[in-house]
Amino acid sequence: MRKIILWGFILTSLGTLAAEVLPVPDIFTFQFRQEGGRYIFNGNFQVDTDSRLAWEVLTDYDHVSGFVANLNSRVLSRDGDEVMVDQTVGGGFLFIRQEVRGLLKIQEKPYESICLEEVTRKQFGLYQGTWTLSPVSPGKGMKVAYELEAERNQATPGFVTAGLFRQAAEDLVIGMKKEMDRRETVKRMNSLKVEAKGSGS
Length: 201
Prior knowledge:
This protein is an alpha+beta fold and about 200 residues long. The chain has helices at about 1-20, 50-60, 160-200; strands spanning about 30-35, 40-45, 70-80, 80-95, 95-110, 115-120, 125-135, 140-150. It has one domain (about 25-175): Alpha-D-Glucose-1,6-Bisphosphate, Chain A, domain 4. About 35% of the residues lie in helices and about 40% in strands. Helix 1 packs antiparallel against helix 3 and helix 2 crosses helix 3 (about 160-200). The two termini are about 15 Å apart.
């Protein structure tokens, strides 16, 4: 009888927890402007987690395709806080595929910021961005901000319009937040299970 009551409490708690960790609706702030062939994007959101988990998601370069559509990347090398990442953005249908590929040089400042720059400049004359983490207030989660600036050149694929660039940047920010929410939910659920197991022993 005690076990039945205990597991009933666990399931109720997990349901309540999921509702708290995944607020509806999600709040994002996006700003975008175009200056000729230059695109400038800013986006930010707040997430109910700590800097360690948020950082874990932002630096999960090899698995980002699992939570951001049409984005694939792999780590080529790492030297301390400097990372070289091969990245492809794009999609396709049947035998038609359109994509943008670049080599990102990433400079990490653990739990604070990530600065990235596309170094081949084959498809953009300029492509650089920054992720920034900052605490909202004690116990109130983290603010995550993303800034990206890119400038077209003659080799930039014609399908990379201002609208598509903006949508891709928004999708990236939204995907990051959803993955942070998901991992935070899993972490809290696992913590509750461990507590419940300890109470039932």
